[in-house]
Design a protein that fits this description.
about 150 residues; alpha+beta; about 35% strand; Thiol Ester Dehydrase, Chain A
């Protein structure tokens, strides 16, 4: 893939993520980095995201949702890489078919931190299904949770 095309794909993905998916705003997710190999999201801890009020710990649903979003994000980047020459309408049509088939999350430690970073990378991308691996770390680089997502891509 040419470098120009790679930058075009990344700009397109960032636009979709920031402008078209309200849930990402609700969670406070921001793209930290996206490349052909890895995606990284960041969000700050907020009162609305607490699941255990006594310990002030991040809600498990926020953790799993964030892992799912970063897994879907890097999966979509991989799909777009294979769509060289496609117009925006074709890309949006393909995006509309992207969906989570299965999500496994292992909660390793309580979600304690000032902010969190989720990273995802594709393990395998076929013509119909892709599998991604995700991790969530806090601001001290402590591994909070890991996940594996299977996504319908075609």
């Amino acid at each position: 893939m040419s470098e120009w095309h790679s930058e075009e794909v990344l700009r397109y993905v960032e636009h979709i993520f920031a402008e078209k998916i309200p849930f990402n705003h609700l969670l406070g997710l921001h793209i930290q980095s996206v490349s052909a190999e890895q995606a990284s999201l960041r969000f700050d801890m907020r009162e609305e995201l607490i699941g255990n009020f006594a310990r002030r710990v991040l809600h498990g649903g926020v953790i799993s949702s964030t892992l799912d979003v970063v897994g879907g994000l890097i999966t979509f980047v991989r799909v777009l890489q294979k769509m060289e020459g496609a117009n925006d309408e074709e890309k949006l049509e393909r995006f509309s078919r992207l969906g989570t088939i299965d999500l496994r999350v292992d909660y390793l430690r309580p979600g304690i931190g000032r902010h969190f970073v989720a990273n995802g990378f594709v393990l395998r991308a076929g013509s119909r299904v892709a599998v991604s691996r995700m991790e969530l770390h806090n601001d001290e680089q402590t591994l909070i949770a890991v996940g594996t997502g299977t996504y319908m891509v075609g």
